[in-house]
Each structure stands twice: as C-alpha cells, then as structure tokens.
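Any chance you could type out a protein's amino acid sequence plus the matching backbone structure tokens because I've never seen that pairing?

——
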Amino acid sequence: MVTVTRHSSLLVLTIVLFTIPPGFAQNEPTDAASDRSAEVESSDVGKLPWSDQQAQLGDLPARRMTHARELLHLLSIDESQLAGFADGKPLGAQDEETVNRILYRIPRFPLNDLHRWAQSTENLSALIAAPNDHRADTFLIRGRTTKIERVEILPEAVERLEFDHYFRIHVALDASPHTAVLCCRETPAAWASGELLGEPIVAYGLFLKLGESKAQRTEFAFATPHIGWLPSAPNAAVGITTDLVQLAALGMDVSLFDDVRPLNQKPITQADRECFYQLLAAVGKADANAIRSHARPTVDLAALLQQPATQHGRLMVVRGTARRAMNIRVNDKDIQERFGIDHYYQIDVFIPLDDQVVRLGKQADGAGPTFTNSYPVTVCVLRLPPGLPEGTDIREEVSIPAACFKLWAYPSRFVSAYDQKQLQVSPMFMGVEPRVIQFDASQNPYIGFAVAGIFVALLALAWIALWRTGRNDSKFKRNILTRRFEVQPGNSLNDAGIEEPGEPDFSKWD
C-alpha cells in the first residue's frame, strides 16, 4: 500500500516496506539505497537468479538436438502419435489427446532451440505437398488474430495434464495467403473477452497438421508455448499506451508484462527473466535519439511508486548521479543465442527529489527510512559511453532514455538499519547508452559567449582609459607648456624670458 500526502509545496510519499521472504537468496542484485548507504560488496552485485535451462529440463541430454521430434520423443511423444493427425480436416476430438500431450510438454522446450529450428511461413508449399514429412517442424509465425476459441479439457484429464483448458487462436498469416490456428495454453490477459481481434502476434509453432483448404487457402495447425503480442496502435481500454506500441515496433512482446505485473515490489525471480531480457534487447539496441524523442523528460517517481502496475514499459529520461556501474556477465546460452547478449551493465542512479520526500515504512510518525534529496533507481544498459567508467564508487551526471521494467525490492544497508527484515523498493529501467553530462564551457556555448563578451568589454574600457589619458596630456601641453614658452609676435627669443646661467650655481652647497 502506498499513501501520498502534501504539506504546502512538499510532496511526501509513504511506501510500505516488505519483509524478506523465507529462502530469499542474499546474492540478488543489490543497489545503493541513499548517499549514506552505498556500501555494497561488489561480489554481490548483479547476480540475477535465472536458473540454468538444463536444470528446467531435468535429465534431458546436454547435446544440441537438431529437431523438435527428438525432444518430443524424449518427452514420450513418438512418431506414431504424430502420424495420428488426419490432414485435410479441422482440429477436432480425434486430435485432442495428442494436442493435449504436446501442450503439456511444450513449455519445457528451450526457447533458443525453437529459435534455432524456426523456419519462415512465407513459403509453405512443401508442407502442403508432403505434411507427413514435416510433422513437428518449427516455424516463426507472424500474423493478425481473426478468432479466439477456448477449448475445455475433459475433467478426467485435468489432474493428469495440470491445466483445464487451452486456446485456439486463428491467425491470418503475414506475407502469405494462408491461415493458421495456434493451440496455446495461455493468451495475453487483455484478450480474455475474446473480442479483441486484428492484433499483430508472433509465435514459435510446431506444425501439427493441415486443416481445410478453400480457394487456394489452406489452414495450418500449430502448437506453441506462447503467443507474443505486438500491438500496432494505442488502446486505452486494454492498457496499450503509445510507449508500448513503440516497444512493440522494436520487437518487444508486451504480453510479457502480464507475468511481471503481479511481481512489483518483490525481488527479481525466474518469472521476470524473459521480460527482462526482451526489454533489455529491444531498448538497448534501439536508436537512442528515437527513444529520447518518445520519452518523458523526467522520471515520474510518484506514479512509479504508487501505481507500478500501470507504468510497465513507460519511456522516461532518467537523469541523476550515477554512483555505480557494474559489468554483469550473462552466461546463459539461450540468451546469448537469441538476443546476442553476453553482458550488460547495471547502473545505480540517484535522481533528484526536488520538492518530494519519500518515506519508507508503516510508521505514521516518520520513524522509517526517509529520502529528502535523491532517490535510487536501477538502469540496465548494454553499453557504457567513454566518459562513464565502471566501478562501485563513481560520481557522474548521466541522462538515460529508458523503459520502466518493474518496481523491485532488494536488501539495502540503509533500510536494514531501521529494520533487518525490510527491503528497499526502487524502479528498474532498461535503457539505451547513457549520455554523460559535462558541466563546462565546451558543453554550454553561452558560457563561452559570456566570457568572450566580458573580455571585449574590458579591452574597450582599457582603450577608453588610455585615450582619455592621452587627450589630457595633449591639452596640458597645448594650454600650459606652449603658452609659457611661446614668443609673442614682434619679439625675438631674447625677449622670451628664457635665462641660462653663465656658470654653475653651488650656492646650495654653502
């Protein structure tokens, strides 16, 4: 719960802190919590709890498989079951048992394998000619939704399968006259009504069978572990903002925020992993100027702390003092293969609070941790500029256009000084390459102009002073000296009053 109160022009945010859940790993990514609490061991920084893919697959072989059929066979789905699909007919009751078994197993498929196996749907003539030869081939499917059906699982099979329904999403394929029906256990939360159609999607699908063919148009049935949503227009009714549309244009599956939304104000977990890396890849590889042009000029900290569920994907410019920049290695092969990411940088930035005060805790008397000058946020980027060094003790002013990932919680020495069980909460962003702000004349031409103007003015004053001095000397010579020794008309030098003594006068020495 977050409450906001105002005192005159001062905005006070009171944030309820969370206790560390049992079993929480202390090597989670950590962050400096305030200017007084930046004492964090570098060895504890950035160790995200992404479990290894092989651990999820159990006893599957470590060798690289070359086709999804190999994996299906290891998961007890053999060729005879795949051969049971009858081509030329829509999916029906005769296909349910095999479809259900595949949907039960397909969440365990490594995404990097699906990525590696995937073919384009631009030319499907080989599947039409010989569907048996291509059963379980993997395809990257892009298109727009035309119909969504919910299929209920027979009650006697629910306990065995661990899900009670699945969806058939009908899609008009991009760059193809054909259509597809995708069998999937989940759809984006905003599609729950089944009325939101015409939405752009992307998915990895295993080919199951040919459906009906009409007017040179064939329907292809696929099973997929996930439907990615790439909205192309804002829709306030379902929470699609212009920022999310911008991210979708960069390849970000915005439906992944459905997994992250319930995890605000909680530590980073395995459930955050896919959204974390997709957002990092989409924003980190984007044109910095394009992101900056769409981003809000400052961080809306009040909205991020009060209403984090509405802020996922919001584009903002994070401007403040970078206190740490840590190089985090990414050893997961699937992330390296799918996104080309083998490292990233975690930057801890303190943003100015201006007239805001952030108070953490449940204490009404204000006894909890209080931030009055700055507040910590985390920004993950793929590159550092030359002017921003790595390290745990830096102080550089930076400006980073970034997208909000979530409001996360982590151990903080500053907060734990008040209560050992409490966690710090801070916004986490994915950003483009930071811009280091240099406060010197080379970065502000007006300072140079001002200095040059002052120099010119001083030169002008010096010239005027010299001119007036010279003018006064000329006047003195003309009016005093000239008149004293001037020979009047009609007189000779002997009459000028100029006397020269005939001999030295030593009288003063007497």
Remarks:
- Residues 1-10, 16-47, 50-60, 496-510 have pLDDT under 50 and may be disordered.
- The chain is about 25% helix and 25% strand.
- The chain has two domains: 18-45+249-355+369-437, 50-229.
- Residues 18-45+249-355+369-437 form a domain with the OB fold (Dihydrolipoamide Acetyltransferase, E2P) fold (CATH 2.40.50.140).
